Amino acid sequence: MPRAVCARCERPATTCLCATLPAPLTHRTELLILQHPAEAGHAKNTAAFLTLGLQSARLLRGEVFDAELAGPGTVLLYPDAASAAGTARAAEVRRLVLLDGSWRQSRRLLAANPWLTGLPRFTLPERVSRYAIRRAHRPGQLSTLEAGLHALALLEDDPAHFAPLWAAFDRFVQAGLYRREIGLA
């Protein structure tokens, strides 16, 4: 018998996020999360936090996406400052595109969607990840939630506004660590 899954956050009922999430937070910059299909079923995936915790965040799953998603003011959050398209300034950004998946999956998404490489890039200064459930392969690698919230804080010049979602994320990480410690993860 398949285990029960929450229809809202798509997690197993035993690890449902819904009770920890604040009411969706308002923000000026739209987030568009393009999720590799292989990432969708991961129990440790953080894209649900962004789509459920922010009013203007949308998640699309697939490998190939319509180039019409790249309207005026659309910028790709990706750590390649040497992009031929240049680096975006905060005032220019209306929609921020995040790629959700492993680094290999994100490179596949870039290759399958050449229009993404033509977008200006927004890069983050190196940060230490708070996501102790997953292992980063290199310093500065962040979960999708961490990258999205850090970017919004910079773009909207209001880090404190996103504190309720950070608190929910921290509770999720602690619960995951606890589950691992007692042998449930």
Structural class: alpha/beta
Query: Topology as H/E string?
Result: EHEEEHHEHH
Radius of gyration: 16 Å
Q: In total, how many beta strands?
A: 5
Major sheet summary line = 5 strands, parallel
Number of helices: 5
Task: Please state roughly what percent of the residues sit in beta strands, choosing from under 5%, 5-15%, 15-25%, 25-35%, 35-45% or over 45%.
Answer: 5-15%
What is the first-to-last residue Cα distance? 19 Å
Overall geometric form: globular
Unreliable sequence segments: none
Tally of distinct domains:
1
What is the percent of helical residues?
25-40%
- Mean pLDDT, rounded to whole units? 85
Largest sheet: spatial strand order: 2-1-4-3-5
Task: Describe the protein.
This protein has 185 residues and is α/β, with parallel strands linked by helices. It has one domain. 29% of the residues lie in helices and 12% in strands. It has five helices and five strands, in the order E-H-E-E-E-H-H-E-H-H. The protein has helices at 47-53, 103-112, 114-117, 144-156, 163-181, and strands at 30-35, 57-61, 74-77, 95-100, 121-122. It is globular and about 45 Å long.
Topology record:
Elements: E1 30-35, H1 47-53, E2 57-61, E3 74-77, E4 95-100, H2 103-112, H3 114-117, E5 121-122, H4 144-156, H5 163-181
Parallel strand pairs: 1-2, 1-4, 3-4, 3-5
